[in-house]
Amino acid sequence: MGKTFLQEVNAYLDKQTDIEPMTKTWLTQMSLLQKEYPVGIPHFPTQEFTNSETGETISKTPMSAQSVVAKLNEKILEKGVMDDCLFTTGVGIHQMVAAQLLTWTKPRQMVSSGSLGTMGVSLGYCIGAQLANGKKMCISIDGDGSFNMTFTELKTVAEQKNPR
User: Fold this and answer.
1) Is the dihedral of CA 111, 115, 117, 119 positive or negative?
2) Residues 160 and 131 sit within 8 Å (Cβ to Cβ)
3) Domain contains 86
4) How confident is the model at residue 164 (pLDDT cuts 50, 70, 90)?
5) The CATH number of the domain where 107 resides is what?
6) Is residue 143 within 8 Å of residue 92, measured between CB atoms?
7) Tens digit of pLDDT for each residue in 65-107?
8) DSSP helix, strand, coil percent of the chain (3-state; round to 5)
9) Does some domain include residue 75?
10) How far is C-alpha 10 from the geometric centre of its chain's CA atoms?
């Protein structure tokens, strides 16, 4: 029944000639808000540790979710493949960061629960997005807690040879 309904709605919308996206006002307002309230990207200082057994100095730089997603966005834009990317997220800070810091170029590039889902849903979404869109690069953006809940699903990715 749901399939028939959607087919009928799509057929109706296809016949409409006066439907025009009403996004211009919102996009203008969004641009102003982004300039006035830019998303901050925390950067942390490098920390040095000495290995007590070897005496070797080890440097580590903590990363923020914002810095990781911003760098991902930068690299995808440099390669010119943003139009061919789909992103999935679970719930949490990474979801908000992805929504704010990725350069969206097409409708429906993000599959997300909109904060109404459950931790760990991103990998399942990503597997499904890849199976449905074999030519697209599907990227799951998730937090460490979510990954710990679903890392066994990587077996499904390997078994399905996903991406193909």
Assistant:
1) positive
2) yes
3) yes
4) low
5) 3.40.50.970
6) yes
7) 999 999 999 999 999 999 999 999 988 888 999 999 999 999 8
8) 50, 10, 40
9) yes
10) 27
Q: If you count them, how many residues does the chain have?
A: 164
Provide the whole-model pTM: 0.74
Structure tokens belonging to residue 89? 């997220």
- Count up the domains in the chain and report the number: 1
Residue type, 108: R
User: CA 142 to CA 146: how far, in whole Å?
Assistant: 6
Residue 11 CA to residue 15 CA, distance in Å, equals: 7
Quote the domain boundaries for residue 154: 65-164
Whether omega before 163 lies within 30 degrees of 0, making that bond cis, reads yes
Specify if 13 maps to a domain: no
**Separation CA 74–CA 41 (nearest Å):** 14
